[in-house]
Each structure stands twice: as structure tokens, then as C-alpha cells.
Design goal:
The chain is mainly alpha-helical. It is built from nine helices and no strands.
């Protein structure tokens, strides 16, 4: 469907936002790491939506869905690492467990597992963004609002076949907020109130 093709192309926007920060000559290490996370996830989401738009092969679609969901966790793990440039082992174990669960799952036989995978991805994204709360609470709240609205639209298909397109469009704002939070960090103990 053309909605899926558009959703694939709009998914490029968060990576374009990240790239614009990364290519800045003053890009901080944490900005580069967080930006790299979204950039490495993008091809998997792009290919999944292109496949959904052009082909009707459930086996391949399921494999692509698993890659997409797994790389959401890798993206989140890199973002979580970027805040303080150290590994949060609870977060690492969570994402590893989720990826193992995705690999072992069989959405073709049990379609309801896709919703569980989506919810665990959302939890992982929120957990990995928590470092932003210490840098700029307002940016973090903005992320939570846009992710919440986007996830509700995507999960409940509130815009029908265009839900993924709307969701991907909404992801641009949190990505921008996250990149601003990484780049403009000055003191981990200052919190905007």
C-alpha cells in the first residue's frame, strides 16, 4: 500500500535529524552514540515497511519485523549508554532478554505476541530515555508525550493503514529532543523545573 511506502520514507526523518547533529563539527560523543542508535535501526524499519507495501509474504514480513523490533532495542541501549557513557547493566539485561524473546517468538503462529513485543520496545525506549530527565525535564516530558500519542496511534491503528505513517512522523520530535539533550548537556545534576 502507498501508506506503508510513505511510512518507510518518513522513518528516514529521525535519522536525518540525528545525522544533522552528528555532522556538526562540535558534536559530543554522547550525541554521536545516540544518533548512531537511531541510524542503525532505520534500515530495518525502512525495509519492513517497503516489504509490507509491496509484497505479501508473511514469513519474510515476520523475519523483518523481528529485525526491526530487535534493532529498536539496540537503538534504545545505545541511547541509554549515551547519557552517562557507561553501561546500565539492568538496562542491558532487559534489552538482551527482549531481543532473545523476539528471536524465539513465533508471531505467525501466535499473532498476539507482536503486541507484547511492541509494548516491551516502548518500555525499553522510555527506560533508555530516562537520562534525559536529569538533563532537561521538559525535553523528556515532550518525548514521553509524543511517544505516548504515537504508540497509541500505532498500537490501536487509530489512523487505519496510515497509523505507521503518523507514528513515524511523530517520532521526529522526540528524536530532536533527545539529540538536543545529548548535545547541550552541561551538568548531570541540573534539572529544569
Amino acid at each position: 500500500s502507498h501508506e506503508e511506502i510513505l511510512a518507510a520514507n518518513v522513518m528516514l526523518l529521525p535519522s536525518i535529524v540525528a545525522t544533522s547533529f552528528i555532522i556538526d563539527s562540535g558534536a559530543k560523543c554522547e550525541t554521536i552514540i545516540a544518533g548512531f542508535g537511531v541510524i542503525i535501526h532505520c534500515p530495518f524499519s525502512y525495509v519492513l515497511h517497503i516489504h509490507r507495501g509491496l509484497y505479501d509474504n508473511p514469513v519474510m514480513r515476520t523475519k523483518l519485523f523481528k529485525f526491526d523490533a530487535s534493532f529498536i532495542h539496540i537503538h534504545a541501549l545505545l541511547t541509554g549508554y549515551a547519557w552517562f557513557l557507561k553501561i546500565d547493566w539492568i538496562e542491558a539485561v532487559y534489552h538482551a532478554y527482549c531481543i532473545a524473546n523476539i528471536v524465539r517468538s513465533n508471531p505467525l503462529q501466535f499473532p498476539e505476541i507482536k503486541n507484547k513485543i511492541d509494548v516491551l520496545c516502548a518500555i525499553g525506549i522510555i527506560k533508555s530515555s530516562y537520562g534525559l530527565r536529569y538533563r532537561n525535564t521538559w525535553l523528556w516530558i515532550c518525548c514521553l508525550i509524543f511517544w505516548g500519542i504515537g504508540f497509541a496511534i500505532h498500537n490501536r491503528k487509530l489512523f487505519g493503514r496510515a497509523s505507521a505513517l503518523v507514528f513515524h512522523t511523530l517520532l521526529v520530535i522526540p528524536q530532536y529532543c533527545m539529540m538536543i539533550g545529548c548535545q547541550d548537556y552541561t551538568n548531570p545534576f541540573i534539572c529544569v523545573r
